[in-house]
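User: I'm putting together notes for a lab meeting next week and I want to include a structural view of one of the chains we've been expressing. I don't have a solved structure, so I'd like a prediction I can at least talk through. The sequence is below, exactly as it appears in our construct file.
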Amino acid sequence: MGKPKHDPPTNTFPYKISKRLNILSVPRKYIIDTGEGMPAYTPRGIRKSAIKAIISDRVNDSALPSIRRFLLIKRMYKHRFSPERMERIDRMMEASNVTCYSKLANCVMDLKKQQNTKDVKKKRGWTESEWKKHMDYIGQIAGPKKDFKPPPVKRGKTLPLDALMPRINQISFFPPFKIYKRLSKEAWYRNPEKVAPKALTYVISDRVKKLATPKVIPQAD
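Assistant: Thanks for the context. Below is the predicted structure for the 221-residue chain, given as structure tokens.
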């Protein structure tokens, strides 16, 4: 029989305890390191399980250096390495060039052609005109920042105060303006809220009353 949904209240704790709180109140079983059953290491400090493990294709392919690094090494040490070592580099180049991950990353190259190190750095899929345009733009944004400050204001010759007083007196006068009246102050204005006295004493004729009365349409049974 499982634990009840609610624990009944007691004298010491007069509240209901839900099943979730009972589960959370159980202490966790912490791992105690006793030194037994721990992974074994070789004298060089390598885990034995890592040596015996089966290497997946993803780990094996990602462990290979990139094809660009192989090309640079082959060009730099072409006259220093032995032929056997150069042949080993060629085999590693072919192995890292045909993986599915290099194809997905678009890093596959034609190794039969003589690759140039300058062409290796170029972004693949661009034409010569696009690459030149891209390099021109990089050179443009890499240059010093231009200063777009406005040119200094060229001021005229200095004049004494007596020569400037006529102009100062001219601009100090209050400018002329026209005063507009409100519409209610005009002589021709007619207040729409006011009603003529005759309009209140107007007698409505019978014809107007008949037209204003709504018609009653009889409904069919």
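A couple of points you could mention at the meeting. The radius of gyration is 49 Å. The longest strand covers residues 6-7.

User: Perfect, that's what I needed.
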